[in-house]
Amino acid sequence: MYSYILLIFVVIFYAGNILMGKAMNDLPPFTIAFFRLFAAFIFLLPIGYRRALKAKPVFLKHYKPLLVMTITGVAFFNTFIYASLQFTSATNVAVLETIIPVLTVILSSVVLKERLTKLQLAGVFLSFCGALGVVVNGNIWQLAKMDWNIGDIIMVGAIICWAVYSMIVKEVVHLFPPLGVLLVMTGISLIVLIPFVTLEWISLGVPPLWNFSNIIGFLYLGIFPSLIALLFYNHAVAHLGASKASIFLNLLPVFTMAGAYIWLGDEISMVQIIGAGTVILGVVFTTRPQKVKEKIGV
User: Fold this and answer.
1) How many domains would you assign to the chain?
2) What 3 state SS string does 54-69 have?
3) Domain carrying residue 144
4) pLDDT digits over 240-297, tens only?
C-alpha cells in the first residue's frame, strides 16, 4: 500500500510536469530540461554527495545499466516531452502517454519475464480505454481529427525512453543508494545536455531565463517531477515491478482533468467521469495480488 500511495504522488507531480512544460513552451526544450535538472542537482548535492561518494565502487561496477537509466529516464524522457509540446497540444501528449503502461507491460513480459493474471491484464486494458476516454471525452473519432505532427513523433521517443527506464530500474536500482544515484544520474544528464543547450542557444539565441515565472517553473520541475517523483517511482518499481507501477501513469489524464477543473474552472463531462472511474477500476484490477497458479504471459 505504501508503494501505491507513492505512485499517486508520482502521477500528481507528472501531471504538473505536463502543465508546467506547456506553460513554459516559450523556452526551447533543451533549455527547460537543463535548468530543471540543474535545480534538482543543486537541491540533491548537499544530501546525496556523501552517499554517492561512498557508493562509487558500485557505480563503476554497474556503469552500463546506470548510463542507460540516466539517458532514458533522466536526460531525455522529459526533454522529449518538452520538445513535443513545442509542436503539439497537451491533449496529444496525454493520448500518447496512455501507450506507456501497455508498452511497459509488453516489454517487461518479454525481457524481464514478468507475469500478470487474466484479471490484471483486463485491468491494463480497462485503464488504457478509460484514460483514452478521458482525453477524447468519449469521442473516439476525435483521434482521427486531431492535428498529429512532428511533436507526436518526438513523443514516441519519450514513450520508449520511459518503458526502457522502468525495466532497468526494476533490475538494478536496489544496488544503489536512492539519493546518491539520483545525484549521479542528474549530474551525468547535465553533462550530456550541455552540447545540446549550446547548439540551441547558438541557433535560437539565449532566451530570457530569469524572470519570476521561469524561476518558479524551474524550481517546481527540478524538485517535484525530477527529484521526488523519480525517487518515489524507483521505490515503487523495485517493490511492485515495472508493469504494475507503470499502469498508474494512466491516471495522468484523470489528475490533469481534475486539476484543470479545480484551478482553471474547466468543465468535466459525465463521459470523462465515467472514463476516470474506468481508469481507477483498471488500476485496482492490475494491482490485485496474484496467485502463483493464475500467472500467465502477456
Assistant:
1) 1
2) HCHHHHHHCHHHHHHH
3) 2-294
4) 887 777 777 777 777 777 766 676 566 666 766 776 677 667 666 666 655 543 444 4
C-alpha cell at 134: 478521458
- Cα pseudo-dihedral 56, 59, 60, 62, rounded to 10: 160
Three-class DSSP labels, 144-203: HHCCCCHHHHHHHHHHHHHHHHHHHHHHHHHHCCHHHHHHHHHHHHHHHHHHHHHHHHHH
Q: 5-17 pLDDT, tens per residue?
A: 998 899 889 888 8
Chain Cα centroid distance, residue 230: 8
| Beta-bridge mates of residue 5 | none
One DSSP character per residue, 90-146 reads HHHHHHHHTHHHHHHHHHIIIII---B-HHHHHHHHHHHHHHHHHHHTT-TTHHHHS
Under 8 Å between Cβ of 91 and 135: yes
